[in-house]
Amino acid sequence: MRVEANVLEASVEQIVEQMLAARRISRADQERFMSVLLSKRVLTPTEQAQVNRVFDGLRTGRLKVVD
Fold first, then answer.
1. What is the pTM of this model?
2. Per residue in 35-44, pLDDT tens?
3. Which residues contact 25 (CB under 8 A, 6 or more apart)?
């Protein structure tokens, strides 16, 4: 599918930067983020750090969950 190809082309870092810049995470953002993460067999230390940035943003209120 074309949509899946576009999702996989995006890097974890790009997705995280977009979410943090917007200071929000939508359901579409979450689905795209999870699709990219789950498409990988192993996360690099850099990718793991990006995932931690999202969790930290949610925990500290820098990222707001929107629908």
1. 0.79
2. 999 999 999 9
3. 19, 33, 54, 58, 63, 64, 65, 66
